[in-house]
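Comment thread on ticket #2218

A.B. wrote:
> Attaching the input chain for the structure job we discussed in standup.
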Amino acid sequence: MDVGSWFSRSKKATSDKFAAERVPTLQQLFDLFASNDALLYLEMKCAPEERAQLAAACCYLVTGASLHERVVFECFDLAALEEVKRIDPGMRTAALFEPKLTSPSSLLLSQRLVDRAKAVGAEEIALHHALASTRLIDRANLAGLKIVVWTVDDPAWIQRK
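C.D. wrote:
> Ran it. Output below, let me know if you need it in another format.
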């Protein structure tokens, strides 16, 4: 799959140097990670009938690359996280939540998201910035969950409470 040619179609593009750029394999990504000490959030996306196979393949590659401590599996499909934990209970996982999957923030929503994350054995809760209310963050902290907030594209959103 060519993922670079669209850069050449941009009005700001000065060359087509990204044409024919390919998505790296997971193994290629892990090879790159061998030269640094970064943490990788690996989002799994699959159909329900493919989750066991994908989880097994990803766990195998993470173990083979000795990145067990530097990869956090995350997924909106919490059953996929359960599958990762079934394969290797030591793998780190983050329950991934976005606003369109839930209703506006409330006391019940906060507790429900924390309960769902804990039920699948997640160590972290990964929230779209619109869900990152003080109430939810406090509940996640009390439950022993690390909080990760994603899609913070505007510095003003960081200041929001």
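A.B. wrote:
> Thanks. Noting for the ticket: DSSP finds seven helices and five strands in the chain.
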